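To fix ideas, we reproduce below one chain and its tokenised fold.
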Amino acid sequence: MTLFSTRNAAILLALACLTFTTVTTASAQTYSPQAQPPAQSAGQGKPAQPEAPKLNPKEEADYKALMAVTPTDAGKKIQLGQQFMQNYPGSRYEESVANQLVDAYYAKQDWNNFYSVADRAVEKDPDDVDALAVVGWVIPHLYNPEDPDAEKKLSKAESYEKHAIELLASIPKPASLTDDQFAQAKSEKLTEAHSGLGLVYFRMQDFDDAVKELQLATSNPSPDATDLYVLGVSLQQLKRNGEAADAFAKCSQVPGPLQDRCKQAGDAKSAK
């Protein structure tokens, strides 16, 4: 599954998450009338203002160079991203660079580094909606029932996707985005989260919840073939054969490796 045009929309939502975190932190602070007033600068009688952090021209140039690399050049993106993280620990661009590395490792199917970078991003920012959604999506797609940690991984994916959906419900629109841009970015990210959660429930054989999530994931104009196929199978398990046939019919219209399988499944249902 292609992750929403290499997940460009997710970069926009990362900015929104940053805004949301800042607003939430500020609103959580309370004013104490007993608190001492801030120190004042000598001779001015005004509160001292902290100096704005100075921009590092080399850091800015290196970040622009990283952003200029196309998502299709995953090797170059990884090389520059790793160098950036090593050279500028704690950079204000850290979350953005980490998410770009996650995308690049996904493109390379380098799953060890994919999980390593994504998990560090979530550890640093538990509300990183981009990392939450993509990790929760990948885990059930790479599911191996023989893995001794299979159940644990599915539980992790479930919690990640639920939290991503929760965050997206209240994420504020950044001033830099138009209403249409924000709505599109949010819709694409929600689709990814519902898709991942639906497959998690399918792997758990919770077909009722799998159907609910996958119906949400496939309600967009360009549904994913895998989501439609798994939706059809889940509906079959619930003996909702007419709806299953509809899902398979839609899946058979999507070009790709599942097209013939969906057509066969739909024909088999129609013949009964």
Remarks:
- The CA atoms of residues 118 and 248 lie 34 Å apart.
